[in-house]
Specification:
This protein is an alpha/beta fold. The chain has three domains: 35 residues; 169 residues, no CATH class; 330 residues, Spore Coat Polysaccharide Biosynthesis Protein SpsA, Chain A. 33% of the residues lie in helices and 11% in strands. The protein is built from 17 helices and 23 strands. Strands 10-9-8-11-18 form a five-stranded mixed beta sheet, sandwiched between helices. Helix 4 packs across helix 5 and helix 9 packs across helix 12. The radius of gyration is 30 Å and the shape is elongated. The chain starts with a helix and ends in a 23-residue tail after the last helix.
Amino acid sequence: MSLKGRALLRRRVAWALCITAVLAFTATSYKVQSIAHSGGIYGVRSDDRYTRGKGFADQLPFQGAESPAAAAVDIDIAEDDAAGGPGWGILSKKLMRQVASVLPARYIKLEGFQYCSILNGATFDAFTRIHPLGGSIAEINPTTSELVKLLDDTAIDTKRRLTKRYKTLYDEDADRYACYATAEGANPYVNISSEPLLKRIDPLNYYGKLIPSIAPHDSLIPGPRRKYKLAYLMMIHKVSTWQQLQDMIEILDDGNAIFLIHVDVLATELSATVKAWIEARDKAGSGNDVVGTPRLGNVFLAQTTYEGMWGHVSLVWMQLSGFWELLDLADWEYVINLSAHDWPLRTSQQIYETLNSTKHKGMEHIEWWTDPADIAGRTVRPHFGRMDRPSIEYSTIHPPEVGLAFPPLPSWSLCKQHQWMILTSEFIRDLRTNIDGLHMLAFMEHMWIPDEAYFCTVISNHPYFSHRVVKDKKRYLRFNAQHPAQLTIKDIHLFPPEEPRGAEAKYFFIRKVNTQDSPELAEWLKNNHIDKHDLAKAPVSPEKLAPVHDANVAASPPRMKLDAADAREKAELGKETGDDKQEAGLLEQEQPKMLDIKVMAQAQPAN
């Protein structure tokens, strides 16, 4: 190209750039005048600088006129100390100071949500473009009320579109999803931003009504604060298993433990029965906490209760609520979660002696593993409860067009676990204040089977607790196909007694057990495990120690699939137990199971 041609090309490029700049300035000026004329989040525009005005700048965590909210956001690149000079990197000295001064104001806290009240106090990225706004918060500078209304209205419209097509969606599921998906912004269903908008939830606003015990409360036990070695969270929802739970408490209550019983919120008759039993037990004052001191008030009924069903986050809420209630009640070292289908092989003192040994002391006992393919399928498909619930097999809906896009902590890896755990009070206390962990829960509450993923995810990504894990749940359980097997006297060869007397237990508990149907199994376990290894008692007489391979105790071979009788039995039951399904943890191709989020008076809806 000739010199004349090159000069002409340069002039045309220059004119094009000028026209583009003028159009951009005009558009920006219009946005600022129309949206931020009354004072935006960063204040009013004055002399090419943002100064403190009617907006949200005063709520940023900075003081004085030099705060980033009051600092210049227009960056002048043409400077004397040019970038790339001696001793400097890509940015010049002045430019580096300007960029550094603006970055702390990137994340803003919003209040005033009405529909999405769970988002009050959450922080959002002011640099992320919001499509309905026409730019980022920093560019457009809307008022707090304008921005909050935009997000509230978007969430309301999101729920409207969902419920218009899927008319049986459970309201509270849809509400919480609509608010979180809107705050996330960049996902296929809401799609109001180019990148994640939500930075962090405020845990007390997000979970304070749903899980009241997230905030510490005074102990319900009067007098000096009690100290125990163990705490048990026991979950029950069927009257038929209540007797077994009572018997289990009597075995485990040797003065070293405190008990909290969670009764399903729908089991009102059972709840009244358990309450009356606790009151009668306390009045009788049987047993001892400390030698010579009556045992009163070491068994409690959970204050906040949930309807639990396999596959839904309420099973996480149920356990977190119970763990934190136990923290308020008394001091203890380890907490063990149980259902009414467990049965102990050791007393609480024997369990504690093992946990307090060199190998186990201060460790989290949780059996977890990685399964990226399954985890991916579980996380990207939000699950909603059905109000009609035609059957237990079709109690949820996950619309194929609905999803979430961004895990809030990209560096975290998710895992799978068995639900049954032994956790330290130190870890439970950390969960209560771990903002990252609680924000991850806000994301995971919309995934499938989060109770088999949440606790191990927090532990395995924790800088401290990830190094203090024993991958052993200390329980024996066995599956027939997708369902846990019901253990009987024919299965005792699978959990033989340890030798010699007093040896460390391989298992603390076995499941699933129905001692009302198999009293001979309960008797065998008492003689060959509990009493045999209780060094405080006299040795069990030899005639009570039945051999494991007795001719009358033949092992029952595992079945590869449920037979017709099993299928009929389950159909007659009408409602499968939550813990049956929790243990299966297998990805089904049909609609998974879920629950209504029904909480007692302390736990209110999201909005």
